[in-house]
Amino acid sequence: MNTSSAASLFSQLSTKAELDLANGIKQKFEQDSKRVEDFSQTLGQLYFDFSKSHIDQDLIDLYAHYAELQGCEQKRHAFLSGQRINTSEDRSVLHTLLRDTDNQNIAMQETGALSQAKQAKQQFSEQYSLIQANLKARAVPIKSIIHVGIGGSSLGTQLLYEALKELGDEREIHFVGNIDAHQLMSVFDQCDVQSTLVIGVSKTFTTAETLKNLESISDWFKKNGVVNPLENFYGVTANPKQALAYGIAEQNVVTFPQWVGGRYSVWSSVSLSAALLLGKEKFDLFLQGAASIDQHFYTADLKQNVCFQAAALDHYYANFMGVRSKAIFAYDYRFRSLVDYLQQLETESNGKDRTAEGTPVEQKTSMVVWGGVGTDVQHSVFQMLHQGTSLIPAEFILVKTPSHDLVEHHNELLANGVAQTAALLAGQTLDEVEQRHAKENLSEIAKKAKIFSGDRPSLTILLEKLTPTVLGALLAFYEHRVFFGGVLTGINSFDQMGVELGKHLAKQVRPLIDKGDISGHRFDASTAHLLKKIID
Ligand code: F6P
Fold it and tell me: Which residues pair with 463 in a beta bridge?
């Protein structure tokens, strides 16, 4: 990167941010009658409205220039053409191939990865059909699937299942990730061994929580009279040797390629459990929805690219407006796991302090991602969103058409979501408080407490309907935004070394707790004291 150009660009962005903060967003609407048309876009069944944020043409131009300095387009090409952009693990990142192996725009050429992807898709289809046939042939039909996996080996599948559950059959999936056996116990209470299938999902098949949970489930089967529990276990993994070593029968091992990262694996056989319930056709529609956004991500000029615009705004807020967190509010109960999924996607991908070349990053990387489901959140955290002293960009996801017929509920839900975006923008001045509450004889203190600064940014994504295609498109938008976020800050978005140290230390702590003796430990005084309190 040309550092003097970058420095001058950053100084322009910094001056712009000061002005933007001083002038606010409302002023942008006053100055541009076409603001909504200029800064909103419809892609298939998704409508993106950026106009209630600090976006403007200057911002887009400055970031397009910065993207040039960062080699954004070359990196996008490197990503999709299978170059080893995961530098620390020396791997390609090709989960997009699972969504579309035919489009040469994206796949570029017949690389080895492309044929691997075709093979992986073909293999998954065949195994899927075989498993469905086996399930049909069972004397006692399966009523429950226990999906055992953690992080990327579960969050996407859980989201997929919950979002589209009503399109699937009546079987239930229970997700077990945590090593905390309270979770497992509650699943045991809801299942019986005769009608339960277990799918263990782990890219590495070495994750301690997953292996221990599988073992305890196997013991539970045995305790309940099943002589050979592993017959009911499938293993989904990129490391089949390890799954076989664990004891999963060869015909029950379902693989996916190494170049599918954990948090990018919802498109692969990792979603076997949800795909079994939804049906393969709907799972394929989910992939197609994502592929439609892949097209936009790859072909749209950066200045019109919604994934890039969202990433540029994230970068602007974090680096020039001192923003530390952003909040995502889906106004749809079916999206109750969306924030967990997006938290991992963004923070595990971009929460880094080294560049892809190993030097310290001199910018702010991933913001804290949090949020929840509307309208519940309005009665808890929205106070801070509207009147807190931190600027928190908010994202609203609304679904136009529900899948139930309680129209009044849905209209009220939408009204609330829309009203919140309007309130964040408009705020409320003292004059407005006095007018709105003219008849109430409010004290001066009460009036002042009702002042809202407004000019708080939000992005709204309106979905026509929650279908497999729309869900796929929405998640692909978030993935590509994270990609651009990584490129803008110069990091490798595809490793997760930051999770390792704690795992390593847990291995040292565990024997001390098991033995009830911490002598010989090498921990700091606080940790030693804590351990002593636990074992005493
Ligand atoms: O500890 C973090 C992590 O490696 C995630 O990146 C991953 O999604 C999760 O653990 C589960 O890993 P695995 O799929 O190998 O069990």
Answer: 46, 399
Is 503 catalytic? The answer is yes
The model's confidence at residue 113, banded by pLDDT at 50, 70 and 90, is confident
**The pLDDT of residue 101:** 74
Rounded CA separation 31/47 (Å): 23
Q: 361 with 352: CB under 8 angstroms?
A: yes
Region 237-243: mean pLDDT is: 98
Find the angle CA(283)-CA(89)-CA(488) to the nearest 5 degrees.
80
Nearest ligand 1 atom to alpha carbon 500? 1
Determine the average pLDDT of the residues in 2-13.
88
113-283 folds as Rossmann fold (3.40.50)
Strands 368-373 and 325-331 turn out to be: parallel
- Cα(212)–Cα(217) distance, integer angstroms: 9
Q: How far is the CA of 149 from the centre of ligand 1 (A)?
A: 8
Cα torsion angle, 114, 117, 119, 122, sign? negative
Is position 95 annotated as part of the catalytic site? no
Catalytic residue among 209, 346, 348, 479: 348
- Structural contact between residues 13 and 29, judged by C-beta atoms closer than 8 angstroms: no
Residue 104: pLDDT over 90:
no
Q: Which residue would you say has higher pLDDT here, 83 or 463?
A: 463
Measure 496 CA to ligand 1 centroid, in angstroms: 9
Which listed residue (379, 439, 504, 507) is catalytic? 379
Question: How many CA atoms lie within 13 Å of 7's alpha carbon, on the beta-carbon side?
Answer: 3
Q: What is the pLDDT of residues 304-314, one digit of tens each?
A: 999 999 999 99
DSSP-derived letter for residue 336 is: T
What are the distances in angstroms from CA 276 to CA 123, 165, 252, 292, 468? Answer: 15, 11, 14, 24, 14
Is 177 near ligand 1, meaning CB less than 6 Å away?
no
Predicted model pTM: 0.96
Q: Compute the distance from residue 150 Cα to the ligand 1 centre, in Å.
A: 6
